[in-house]
Design brief:
InterPro entries: ThiF_NAD_FAD-bd, Ubiquitin-activating_enz. The protein is α/β, with parallel strands linked by helices. The chain has 9 helices and 26 strands. The protein is 24% helix and 33% strand. Strand 12 and strand 13 form a beta hairpin. 44% of the residues are buried. The structure holds zinc ion (2 copies).
């Protein structure tokens, strides 16, 4: 037996023990997560652990959320920030959560889930990308009723340990039975503050949401001010085969109506590779009403003038309409990623492998739909054909797992009529996404000889090293190291 200190109190445990046993010997509920002090910060422990004489542990507050309303909320630890928050799910994860909540609510019990998220933020906007969703099974719940829900410590510890490993932010989501537009109760706020503090001591960021069919409330724990921060506006967006759509709006929104679907004039489109097909795509998009472009290409035009292709494309767009905002980037190797991550959709028409890898990486990390358009040479007779592939992170396969045939790689099949046909297929895919048309296919092959178009569907491989469980899907910005 060794002596360890739990919240400063000495207790005796075997050298091989577990978080559950430490809770038992200290008479703590099996809903309170435990962290071990290690090098100036706390580390979540879970399952079986080895301890040494003098080890120090902290017991956190349960992650209880509830809707008792009898006490007036007077917490000074809440503040509002001039900030807009978006919680982004891929459709499969959103459906999983919705169904779990429906099942709980049908039994008159509060729904509960924890999302692990990557993030992207600037001064006013924060996007959280849900990359893992943990829904407790019945045995993972310590308590669940029509007015309260508490997960078991072991469930929470496993989620927190994984979040710590991957540098993810933790967003706790729950429901209030029968409430279509719930607001946080004082129990939510009090426990949320404690949960936020505990997670901060473990180097983890915490946010929470209470969600209903018609609206939701959201707040972030701000460790620097030890307070919960409510955003000025927030929405839950879902990326599906029909692109990104808002699903639920924040209670604070002046109108809880879902904003009308994105239209060509409201999105920022990146076009990478501005030779042939890429240039054709720019001009078609401009004629469809797209007004905000990011143009990436480090090549020069074939003409004698040797002008930068990105610059030439920008000029061409300005001729189509004076109100087009087209930003061109020629130094793609250095700055492609930082510009691409702020786009709503990326067209990739290049042949540069390094740039293609950067596009795939940004698309997966920030859940940005990517449409690849190019020509290739048929293996049988050397004739050209066109290939358009829509990559929807978390839904379709990514460029690593969708099984690209080696013979597809040839380029140089470029000819004006084929380029035009391929560009128009690619642009149509985006227009279908924006209009909400039913999109069942992700891969379009165009054969100019036979004048045929073949459509296929590619599903995601969950074991994929890029977009699978261990990949970069939804990772967002690299997390700044914290001292
Ligand atoms: Zn609540
Ligand atoms: Zn993949």
């Amino acid at each position: 037996m060794v002596t360890i200190y739990v919240d400063g109190r000495p207790v005796q445990v075997p050298e091989r023990t577990s978080a559950a046993e430490i809770r038992r010997v200290t008479h703590s509920d099996q809903s309170r997560p435990i962290a071990k002090a290690s090098g100036g910060k706390n580390v979540i422990v879970h399952g079986e652990i080895d301890v040494s004489e003098g080890d120090r542990f902290t017991v956190g507050r349960p992650f209880t959320k509830g809707m008792q309303k009898f006490r007036v909320l007077s917490s000074k630890k809440q503040r509002k920030a001039d900030r807009s928050v978006r919680l982004i799910f891929s459709q499969p994860l959103f459906e999983l959560m919705r169904k779990a909540f429906e099942a709980s609510e049908s039994l008159s019990r509060e729904g509960y889930a924890v999302a692990r998220c990557g993030s992207r933020s600037d001064r006013k906007n924060r996007d959280y990308f849900v990359r893992g969703l943990h829904i407790p099974a019945k045995e993972d719940l310590f308590e669940q009723s029509s007015i309260t829900v508490t997960p078991r410590a072991e469930f929470i510890e496993a989620v927190l340990a994984e979040a710590a490993l991957k540098g993810d932010l933790v967003v706790e989501v729950h429901t209030h039975v029968g409430s279509r537009e719930p607001n946080f109760s004082w129990i939510d706020i009090e426990n949320g503050l404690e949960n936020g503090r505990f997670l901060r001591s473990c180097g983890l960021r915490f946010a929470m949401a209470v969600v209903g069919e018609a609206g939701f409330s959201f707040c972030d724990y701000d460790g620097d001010h030890d307070s919960l921060v409510m955003p000025e506006s927030a929405r839950i967006s879902v990326l599906g085969r029909n692109g990104m759509k808002d699903a639920v709006m924040h209670r604070s929104a002046s109108s809880c109506e879902i904003t009308s679907a994105a239209c060509p004039g409201s999105i920022r489109v990146a076009v990478v590779g501005l030779d042939g097909i890429g240039l054709e795509i720019c001009s078609m998009l401009a004629r469809q009403g797209v007004r905000n472009f990011l143009l990436l290409d480090d090549g020069v035009t074939g003409m004698e003038t040797g002008k930068r292709r990105a610059k030439a494309a920008q000029k061409m767009l300005r001729k189509i309409s004076a109100d087009i905002d087209a930003f061109n980037v020629s130094d793609v190797a250095r700055s492609a990623r930082s510009y691409l991550k702020d786009c709503d959709v990326i067209f990739y028409c290049g042949s540069d492998e390094a740039l293609k890898a950067a596009v795939a990486d940004v698309s997966l990390k920030y859940l940005i739909p990517c449409i690849e358009a190019r020509t290739a040479i048929k293996a049988e007779n050397g004739g050209p054909y066109g290939l358009v592939r829509v990559l929807l992170p978390g839904i379709t396969g990514c460029s690593s797992c969708s099984g690209e045939a080696a013979t597809d790689r040839d380029t140089g099949a470029s000819s004006v009529p084929v380029n035009e046909a391929v560009a128009s297929i690619a642009v149509q895919e985006l227009m279908d996404m924006l209009s909400g048309a039913d999109r069942a296919f992700d891969l379009v092959e165009y054969d100019p000889e036979a004048q045929s178009v073949e459509r296929r569907r590619r599903d995601r491989d969950r074991a994929c090293p890029m977009c699978g469980e261990g990949g970069v899907l939804g990772a967002g910005d690299e997390r700044r190291a914290r001292r």
